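**Protein record**
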Amino acid sequence: MILNFQLNSVESKTYSSAEDIRKYKNININYDVNLKNPSIVVEHTPFGEKSVLRVEYTFAINYLSPNIGHIRFEGLSDYYSEEDLKELKEKWDAGKAPGEIQNELANTMVANLAPLALMLSKALGLPPSMPVPVINFQQAAKKKEEPTYYHG
């Protein structure tokens, strides 16, 4: 389980003017997720002191083809488990990090940073960094399905 998520650095830059960026029809957006430098640290939690696996991350959003800008986040995340953390760290150092732990760390990172990335991309005049849902009421009106109730 993730006990701590921390953002240490944000870097964003455009290489073109907003007017030039609007001219491009297709821009390739590349997402680079890097989890690195695992270490075991003791964290003070509401449940007392706990040893956690601290993993540094870098999450970069690169606007390529054409190269018009980037957004980059760096920070760290603390993972707690009842499993032997020394063994987890040894696996990680050997290039055999457990996929479920990497997935949990990466998904927490994206869930926390996606809203910030969207705000930054808008402020910089870049296309949305993450897909934004498209609402089409006319299409929904044509369907004759039962309504979905999200709360009761």
